[in-house]
Each structure stands twice: as structure tokens, then as C-alpha cells.
Amino acid sequence: MIFPSTPSQTVGPYYAIGLPWPAGPHAVPEGTPGAIRIRGSVYDGAGAPVPDHLIETWQADPDGRFADLHGHGGPSTLPGFRGFARCGHEGGDGTYEILTVKPGRVPGPGGAPQAPHIDVSLLARGLLHRCVTRIYFADEPAANAQDPLLARIPEERRATLLAQPTDDGYRFDIHLQGPEETVFFAV
Amino acid sequence: MTDPTAQPSGAPPRLWVPNADTPTSYQREDAAAHPPLDSPGYKSTQLRHPKQPLVYLPQTATEITGPQLGPERIAGELDHDLTRQHEGQPIGERIVIGGRVLDTEGKPLRDTLVEIWQANAAGRYRHRWDRWDAPLDPNFSGAGRCVTDAEGRFRFVTVKPGPYPWGNHHNAWRPAHVHFSLLGRAFAQRLVTQMYFPGDPWFPYDPIFNSVRDERARERMIARFSIDETVPGWAAAYEFDVHLRGPGALPFEEAH
């Protein structure tokens, strides 16, 4: 390291004038076959919704391929796949919703396959640095049981990372503090 | 010379073929460079900072890849010029903010999206939750975007934002600042920060600026006035280089 990192600062309460855009919450275009909606709420330590949060997600497509600069493992063949979603509102109520597809499996440490997952960055007023978590899927018990990262997390806290199936996708709530505090990661 | 990406015969195909431009891991977060999430002087952190220790996440394919949002997010040729988004010019001191996005090894990051947003010259944001009694400017929205060039450069034209009061403590005012959002080239590099202006009298009193404990780290958030880049008869220039973490030593590094 020659130059130290520029420090992080909070996104503040007024990010909505610069960061969200109408298609931001869509990691895939509307109408994509197999598309799912992931919805949830973000709560503070008093159990109150965090209305000025911003969620960003990043994931592979169902074949385990990314829409990144370098075409990891070959470019995604899913039309319009962006793999990135950003959701935040000027008049937020603590909830978020993204449109995406369930990711496939990508290699983890040592090349062992990971369970399907979505990386999440959570930003908000009062967060001086983003919080990183991962969405795993409660209806993937076999893959989850073999996942090398989930295995590092105390069993009683693993459920905080499991999105629960709904009619048209999944529900994934985030608790910043409290008895249900979500597992957050150092990347 | 042996091709380092060549596969032994019979080996399974490799998913990730690195080249000089695609790091397979990044340095771990430099804790000393960033503010702690629990910063009592900034009251909103109280109910929002996670209390459990962070869990070590090895950097896998998901963390070393990232989106290229530029083409989708840039609205037009004037998206970097916050003074030309309306019929008239905004009130305030016209400035140019130029700089580069680099990694901690000094390597430029090209084709990466830089997004900014800010208050107007009176210190008021165009946001429904900003209730401070200072005027909105009909000619200023306060947001801009650009994508870095081959040398990692970006350039914005805007007006200098004003400081403004907030409710954190008695007589609390934020130093003038411009919010910066950087995607870098990988999920691991994502950074949101604020750019400050040299010599701001509010620095000693601001718990957000001072949440960064190290004085030299705080200085990295302060732009540099540049007489060389100042456009005669038109706009003062500030330079602000942003450093995102650079490549790590090992692919798919293991916990230690």
C-alpha cells in the first residue's frame, strides 16, 4: 500500500437527490422469466424502521455468471442481466424491494461451491461506513448446509441471513441491533 | 516462458482467468483509515451501529466482481455540470472539482462511475426532509455523475455548497461538503465519502468529520485548492483524489 484509503463517511439523509434512479431496483428487466421480488424492512436498535436507508445488491445470474467488467466465467447470457440493484427513496418508510433472479452457485474458498447468495451493502444516515451482509435462501437447505461461509457463523445467528419464501419471491429483513441483529461481514 | 494461466491437462476448466487488469483479491479493509460505526459524538449512530463483531468474509467471486453502471447512469453530456441543468445559472461561487480515482497502489481506475450530490450555495438540499430555512435555488438540483477516463480522471462543475445547521447538538453545523459515491471495479471497493474544503472553520466542531480519528486520514477528505486548474475569469478549482483499496496478495484468500 502506497496511498492509504480515502476514509468512508455517512451517506447522510439526503442521498435520494443523487443516488436512486427509476430502474435502480431492477437487477433484471421487468418481465424476465423466473424473476423474483425480494422485499424487506430495515430496523434500528429500538425496533423502529430506518426510513433513510439505501440498499445495494450484487449477485451472479442463475448460471453463476456475473455482469461485471471482466465477464467472470464468461458473460451472462440472461438478456439485460445487470446483477446490481439499488433501492432507496426520498420519502422512504424503512422498506425496500428489488427485482432479480435467484443466483446460481459460484466458487468459494478453495474452489468449493457456495450456496446461492446475494451480497448486500446497507447505507444510511448514522452509518459512517456501509454494512455488508449476504442474502441466503431458506429453501436451499442442502446447499446452505455445505456452504463454507455459513459454517463459520454461530448456528443461532445463521437464520438472520436466510430469506424466507413468499408468493412472488422472498422476504429479507435487516436488524441493525437487538436480539435479531443481522450478521454483518468484514470484507 | 510458462503461461501462468495454462491448465494442466485433465484439470477442470478454470472459472476465472486473471489478467493484469483483474485483481483476484483486494486488501482487507484498513480499519485505521475509516471511522468506527460506533461514534457516540454523532448521535444517529447510537441506535444504528451493529453491536456484534463483524464476521470475516473471505473474498470470493462475488466480492471481487462489480457492476459497470456508467453507460446506464450518465444522462447526457452535461451530467457532470451541475450549473447547466436548468434554464439559468445557480447562485453561488462557481467551482471545478477535478481529481482521479486510484487504488491504494496508485493505479488509476478507469471507466468507473463517480456520483456526487450536495446542498446549494445557501446550504439547502433539494430534499423534502431538509427543513432548514434557507432558500432553494430554482436553477440547482445538486446532483451529478461522470465516468472516469483512461487515467482515472473525473471532472465536475458546480457551485460551492454552504454549511448548514443540524440537530445533533447545540449549535451544530456541518462543514461545507460534497457527497461522493464510488463503485470502483469490485464489490470490495465500494466507497461513499464526503469531500470537504480547505480551512473550513467548522472542522473542529463536526462529529462526522472527526469520526475519522486519525488527523492525516481526515486530511485525505479535504480537497486541495489549485491555482493551476483554476480557469481565469470563470471558476476556482479544487482537486480531490480518491483512493480505493488495491489488490491483495492471494487469490481467494483464506481466513487468518
Description:
The complex is a heterodimer of chains A (187) and B (256). Chain A is mainly β and 187 residues long. Chain A has one domain: Protocatechuate 3,4-Dioxygenase, subunit A. In chain A, strands 1, 2, 3, 4, 5, 6, 7, 8 and 9 form a nine-stranded mixed beta sheet that branches. By secondary structure, chain B is mainly β. Chain B contains three helices and twelve strands. The interface between A and B is large, with 78 and 89 residues.
* The top level CATH class name of chain B: Mainly Beta
- Measured by DSSP, the beta-strand proportion of chain B falls in 25-35%
Instruction: Tell me, briefly, the overall form of chain B.
Output: globular
Oligomer: heterodimer
* Cα radius of gyration of chain A in angstroms: 16 Å
Q: For the CA atoms, what is the radius of gyration of chain B?
A: 21 Å
Q: Report the portion of residues of chain A in β strands.
A: 25-35%
H-E order of chain A: EEEEEEHHEEEE
Total helices of chain B: the number is 3
Largest sheet of chain B: 5 strands, mixed
Number of beta strands of chain B: 12
Give me a quick take on this structure.
The complex is a heterodimer of chains A (187) and B (256). Chain A has helices at 141-146, 155-158; strands spanning 36-43, 53-58, 84-87, 95-100, 118-124, 131-137, 162-165, 169-171, 174-175, 185-186.
Structure keywords:
heterodimer, A: 187 residues, mainly beta, Protocatechuate 3,4-Dioxygenase, subunit A, 9-stranded mixed sheet, 5% helix, 26% strand, B: 256 residues, 25% strand, globular
Protein topology:
The complex is a heterodimer of chains A (187) and B (256).
Chain A: E1 36-43, E2 53-58, E3 84-87, E4 95-100, E5 118-124, E6 131-137, H1 141-146, H2 155-158, E7 162-165, E8 169-171, E9 174-175, E10 185-186
Chain B: E1 55-56, H1 61-64, H2 70-73, E2 94-103, E3 113-118, E4 143-147, E5 153-159, E6 164-166, E7 172-174, E8 177-182, E9 191-196, H3 215-219, E10 224-231, E11 235-239, E12 242-244
Parallel strand pairs in B: 2-11, 2-12
Antiparallel strand pairs in B: 2-5, 3-4, 3-8, 6-7, 8-9, 10-11
